[in-house]
Design brief:
The structure is a homotetramer. Chain A is α/β, with parallel strands linked by helices. The first copy, chain A, is globular and about 40 Å long. Chain A is about 35% helix and about 15% strand. In chain A, the strands form 2 sheets. Chain A has an 8-stranded parallel barrel with strand order 3-4-5-6-7-8-9-10, surrounded by 5 helices. A two-stranded antiparallel ribbon of chain A has the order 1-2. Chain A is built from 9 helices and 10 strands. The first copy, chain A, has a single domain, classed as Aldolase class I (TIM Barrel, Alpha-Beta Barrel). The two termini of chain A are about 25 Å apart. In chain A, α1 packs parallel to α2 and α4 crosses α5. At the A-B interface, α6 and α8 of A face α6 and α8 of B.
Chain lengths: ~250, ~250, ~250, ~250
């Protein structure tokens, strides 16, 4: 029986509905988030994603706007009545980020950053724990235990693909993790079809499969202008493509 | 546009329908196949699977009944009006097997057995080409070319999972291969949820995901008595479980 | 040209010699470390390993003695004139750990814990950066850049095996990373034959291969009583086995 | 205790010496093999490699000269007193190939082509069995059993790298397979540093590691003009590079 995680009045994850979270990979500017917030609100989407702290493979890539990004989001959230999910990377940032973020995301690279897991485990906010890119399902469940043992049971697990030899896609989505996690835990299970495939044209089929497998939702990258995105443009949907995805899923 | 492969009057693969093929991993006895044939005919299943030549990792494992198995099937096919798919492993067996088998299956281990591919490419029978367990999609498509260049375009591609570090499942089904192959080729695409997961309890969810992704069908292992199967019992459905799967998919 | 990293007067890594670091996976007790320190000093080993903070897959496994472990080491180091390498997992621990540890180790799970990398990058201590278990060589080099860009160039890279489908060994040592890193960077390159294989009987051959490939050294797990080790006993050498390894390598 | 496999008077594999086999990936012309044969004979190399039947991923790539290639080799062998190892891919070719080839090679793609394994198992010629690119060591040993159970115990196992996520090298050489196979079987173990790395600059370090691990030999690709090779040019050594390798190894 999947645990119901209340995000806000009338916004639940794990209640049997299929929740769609969307937003850009990274918060880049007020204008970008204004457009995105207005667009999502119009479509009835309740939770927006956007990275302020970006874990990038190279230290020379764009690292996110940090606190400035969070402040942009404070405005957008209020204006469009949205809840906000965003990644935290450093236990020392949690206190500062706490007031801005409604769902803490732990990224793939930090799935076994146990200090960070314990720290979000001490908060009362929901945590989305992404699967490590070479983590077994067993290791992933044990990583979730690092959070729950600190007292926080509001955990959402997010399949985002594993690293294999296949290079046509950025990662290989292990869709069978959905029924396996449903069997072994009572946490809601999400899928990230954007990072999971790395290809815009596969986001829709990956979302359909997720829904068919009774995932509790998906978290999708969209951008007002994917060609100009500072990160992950090739897997981000345009607004038009995202509307099409919504129509096809509903 | 997916190619329509006619198996018999009124039996097509790739025509937009979702074809379900079922049967045991290996032909073990006349009695086993009699029960299976009767059961499938009752349910309206048109194509039966069953291995006569079994490629087993160890030479000491059961290797299949060979020609004796094919002869059993000749009877069952006629009695229950079924078409028969079965694996061939050796180019020298093709002539003998030709009269018994309606769809030649090339197993995962032989995906790059180019002599065998060319040989089935010279026949006029449909060929189901399973993905090699560590083959990229690109290599798989090129393997299909070995068949088509000999003149046989009746090719069905079958995703059966790839080898990864995850060991909860026998293989990791790469479901994204379905939309990718649909984009890159015009061959029908099947999924083998039995080998793809190696676990009876995952056959149904894997089948649902296959259907949601517009696969052209699935090939499922069933056995009148899975606990006593000579191979792959842990991933075979009982008759009752298979009926449940049919009901859930329809 | 490999950079020479001075650990102490007369103790260098990267100067063309083959440095052997040894010690237990985890600091378990004063007695254990006393025995180990005396043993290593007798053999002329200059650097001892031992974990005070242990990143364990399960939160219920032994997590290390923490500060208590570091204090034990302060005594042992002084008594036997040894330098000490130990893992840090949390940027907040660095200040406290600084006085005890001579070489900071960043473990495999934290290779892309960028906050931690930056923090050790701000110190003046040598850092051993272990390869992530599914990191490409390119990603590993970029992780090292997170350290060097903060001003700390005293980086030692340590190959510890990657995750593959082969399950006879715990990981698959990618020995070719040694010449590749020597070509692409000027950092000394170590090998961890203990974690890299997970099997006591393979530590010696893995060490021989490392030396033949001009690695700058190895870091080996030893334990006065491997059968009773609180972690990684099956890959730890007994003192006798370690002496044999030294003799075979020299 | 490693089995000694006699190739000819005074030519043994598995007798404790380190045997170097060399030659081109594919036999391309009489002139190419004439140059190669003369060169190897001059250096005292006793066994030449060269493919007549080439298993290529694409059917449109050069497939080898077939029987014509074998006939070229008959001449070269006689003229320079060399033994000849070459791949067979089809059980139907064995009779024809028998008179030309001294050591049958089973390629990576055919490691589990059980029909072919049984067929070489019925001959009295040594067989070099390459590891499948995603085969576990256990599966590899069981593949060898398909040969030995037919009566042919003259088996040489050849590590040639496994498929992983690391893409800097063509494959990841699993060097630990050498001591593992030495422990578990009594067959000689070779390494293919050319396919195993896919990079000319890594052939020498891979060869050194093989020797340090007591492999029984290596099989190396060389070409009189690597830039013009019809296959695998980027991993082939020039004659000069090969002489350098010999000097460094001895």
């Amino acid at each position: 029986m999947t645990k119901n995680i209340k995000i806000d009045e009338g916004i639940n994850i794990g209640d049997g509905s299929f929740t769609i979270i969307a937003g850009p990979c990274a918060i880049e500017s007020r204008e970008q988030m204004e457009k995105t917030g207005a667009f999502l609100a119009k479509l009835g989407i309740k939770i927006i994603r956007g990275g302020a702290f970006k874990p990038r493979t190279s230290p020379k890539s764009f690292q996110g706007l940090g606190l400035e990004g969070l402040k942009i989001m404070a405005e957008i959230k209020a204006k469009y009545n949205l809840k906000f999910i965003s990644e935290v990377m450093d236990p020392r940032d949690l206190e500062m980020a706490y007031d801005y973020i409604d769902i803490f995301q732990i990224g793939s690279r930090n799935m076994q950053n146990f200090s960070l897991l314990k720290e979000v485990g001490k908060t009362d906010k929901p945590v989305m724990l992404k699967r490590g890119m070479s983590a077994t399902i067993k290791e992933w469940i044990m990583a979730a235990e690092y959070i729950s043992l600190e007292g926080n049971e509001k955990i959402i697990l997010c399949e985002r693909g594993i690293r294999t030899f296949e290079d046509y896609t950025r990662n290989t989505l292990d869709f069978m993790s959905i029924p396996i996690l449903k069997e072994k835990t009572d946490y809601p299970v999400f899928v990230d079809p954007s990072h999971g495939t790395g290809r815009r044209d596969l986001v829709l089929p990956a979302s359909k499969a997720s829904k068919a497998l009774n995932a509790d939702g998906i978290i999708v990258e969209i951008h007002p202008n994917p060609e100009k995105a500072l990160s992950d443009g090739s897997q981000s949907l345009s607004f038009e493509e995202f509307e099409n995805l919504l129509n096809q899923l509903m």
